[in-house]
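FORM 7B: Structural annotation worksheet

SECTION A. Query
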Amino acid sequence: MDVSFLEPVFAATGPFATVCADVTHTTENADTELDLRVRAVAERLTEQGAPEVVVEAVRGRLLEGNEGGAAGTLKGRAIVVASDGSVVFDQALLDAPRQEIAEWSAHADLLPVLRQMPGRVPHIVVLVDRTGGDITYMGGPGQLDEDTEEQTVEGDTFHIRKVKVGGWAHDHWQNSAENQWEANAAQVAERIASYARRLSPRFVLIAGDVRARNILAGLASDLWKDLVVTMDEGGRAAGADREPVDRRMGALVAEHEARECAEVLEQVQAAAAHGLSVTGIGPVVEALRKSQVETLVLADEPGDDTLLVGNSPSELGVNQHDMDALGVHGQVVPADRALLAAAVASSAGVVVVPRSAMPDDVPVAAVLRYTDASTASGS
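SECTION B. Predicted structure
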């Protein structure tokens, strides 16, 4: 995963408030319930010493659901606020967080946020009927709605419905309707192809009217025809239930993420034969110091390990001897936070995988861009 979207966090001045909160806003008493949940988050941050400017920034973002609009449709939200009260990260979650967080600390606690974020798999969702389609592209994660694009295609509705007219005009009306459906679907297909060409989605989920779905799938170009997944539930009509579509989309994202996790772990093992991967904290730290890391692989349960960090994210070591060699004094930082900061600073990708899937149960591994004589091999 490209984690360049985290750069504003590491460019800001800490300490930081890191929050993953349930902002579900769908019940009859939603305003009151959300207010109570946000009050609890604010109290936890205040108890940990967060200044009022930070607490107010968190409270303001989380209570946006009480003001109506798109924020009121969210189920979960992840926010990072810097010490001056600036919101440096704001991301919608697909569901209420599995692990709620309200932490005020010297370094943002981003690993549990990454574990719960959606959109790590770029994809397209299309709701179609015989008059057109609503197209949503969701890319890599970033600021709230930053990597989401939406388009609506409205075709011609003249003679859009088949009618029972009989006589010599019957075939004309029937063919006219079919032709118009196909013309409308062609416009939707053209927009999808544009997204596929620019943004390389992993799948295209199509829901809505069955005839419109079939026509659209039949018009898919080579750019995206192999990416198509169709479903019977969901539609464009006003009041149509979007929940089945979101649920299917989430399942597809999870499938692709699991596949990517398996692939990167295979890559770690295969690359080790050529000295192009390392496992374990020591070898990975050394590789990060030299900007060798192409992909950092972090276990979702990092443990209690710490590292020493100097004046920049790449000045890190496992002990003071390492820092003495760099000529700097180290500050103790939880290992996962230090490793993630170094990965962002060196433009490395990051993949979070279950701890049980890591080779030899190590907390971290890395695929390297290059190797040299000093590169450690294996763990």
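SECTION C. Observations
The chain has three domains: 4-116, 123-256, 273-368. The domain at 273-368 is CATH 3.30.1330.30 (60s Ribosomal Protein L30; Chain: A;).

SECTION D. Sign-off
Analyst initials: ____
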